[in-house]
Amino acid sequence: MSTPHPEAQVHTGTLDGAEYRVEVPVKWNGTLLLYSHHYRQPGLPCPALAVPSDDELGPRLDGAALRELLHERGYALAGTARTTGWMMEDTLRDQVLLQDWCIANIGRPERTYVWGASPGGLASITLAQLHPRRFDGALSLSADASGVINQMLLRLDMGHVINTLLAPDHDLELGLISDPQGNFDKANAIIGGAAQGDALSRARLILSGAVASIEPLVDGHTNQPVTDPEEAAEQLVWVLIMAHSSILFGPARKEMEERAGGNPIWNDDVDYRALYARTTPALRELTERAYREAGADLGADLAALDAAPRVSADIPARNYLVRTAGFPGLTPVPVVTVHNTLDGPTPVGHERSLADRVALVGDPGNLRQLFVDRGFTCGLSPAEIMTALDVLEQRVAAGEWGDTTPEALNAAAGKYSDVHRRVYNFWIPQEREEERYAPLAPAFTEFTPLPLPRSYPF
Length: 458
Hints:
Layout: E1 9-15, E2 18-24, E3 31-36, H1 63-72, E4 76-81, H2 88-105, E5 111-117, H3 119-130, E6 137-141, H4 148-166, H5 180-196, H6 199-210, H7 229-249, H8 251-260, H9 272-277, H10 281-294, H11 298-307, H12 315-323, E7 335-342, H13 349-361, E8 367-375, H14 382-398, H15 406-413, E9 422-424, E10 437-439, E11 444-445
Parallel strand pairs: 3-4, 3-5, 5-6, 6-7, 7-8
Antiparallel strand pairs: 1-2, 2-4, 8-11, 9-10
Helix pairs in contact: 1-14, 2-3, 4-6, 4-7, 5-6, 5-7, 6-7, 6-10, 7-8, 14-15
């Protein structure tokens, strides 16, 4: 774990059973950043963090470099942790308790921002929506920004394809998981076998990602999508097993169902031919190339998906997910989101679905969405994150957005040193760990994502 600036005062302890960590630099600028941590698989360690850390066992955001920059700028940093799994209900409560602790023990901040990555980014958007008088703004990084319901629905659609077209006996559990470890192991064997199998198996695996807008890309140092079906299957299997399999088929799904009191997701009303037609043109082109090379009938497989048995939601369980970060979009205070254009674990379509919802029920003037032309998820440098934070600061302090063109953002991020422009890349083999972090040029870009193929409730 990275260490705080030597002049920072560190406070740790528990609040109503939740661990907390607070770091206050000597020259505090009066702003508190409340960090909501990344998803952690059930059973893994769950320490309180004030910045991203490798302890989260998720995508790397170079927390050491971020902490250094944030302390140098005078930010106080704080975060909580209580449980693994679908931690959202706990996070939404504990971050409020932590803010109260900070007010009582280090002083009332002039401003408080909530921030985080992936589910932590969704938690931040939700906290700002629920408590606009407490929090002045939110910074969300690579998040399922349109809500956990949408993220779980895309996973179910992916799982429906795998179970219908790739599972020999169509016996994967897609709801009310009774044997989470066995189901998880079986699903991973099917996914891995398809990637190593014949051309038809690879094509069907690629289709499973396409219906959910899941990019088959792990390389965090490129902005080029994968166009070769064999290579796409090789990278997609990694994305599915790393980011989606446990929370759909395995222990993480079981844990979510136990919290929710039933199965919260459904596909009983889905037209899969229409769903596939709504995915991105690039994913349709990749899928159709894979089917051509396999000499297979894509139309017949889509018909099979539409004819296959479906999963229905338990309404109270669905409502539980809605209450715990299932419906962001009100934006009563400024929100800045940052997303990679080729994100497979958390598809960039979340940003469009969020923007569409904000246009209906929120304040579009309080939302600014920034895009980084790069692969995978959380493929962001500390320089890019600091630049996004500056965008939020400008909006809150001045009451209007500054220059957020890619040219202006890249110029700002480009002023940071190489050590602060490093981006992590999981696709480099683990035995070359020292090469996984590399300094990259800032890559903010103009981008308009398509909405997710299936978005709740509209």
